[in-house]
Prior knowledge:
By secondary structure, the chain is mostly helical. It is about 85% helix and about 0% strand. It contains three helices and no strands. Helix 1 (about 1-25) packs parallel to helix 3 (about 60-80). The chain is elongated. The termini are far apart.
Amino acid sequence: MGTLFGLLVVCALVGLVVHLVVTSAAPRQTLDRRERGELDALRSLVDDLKETAWEHRELDSALSVIMIDKIRAHERRRRELG
């Protein structure tokens, strides 16, 4: 359970960082190469965390489902916004 809790905390922090990068760059409408690379790396990390939660769901299935659902909900909101 401790491992998944740690994973949840990391996921929340990554989500916050992605949000800050996207919102801080929004007024400029373009991201430079460094910012684009950072954003792509963070998205990759979130995908990896989602896969890890799924692969280790037997450790704490309820928490894994919560993490995966939160990530998917965030991804859906992003698609709806543009």
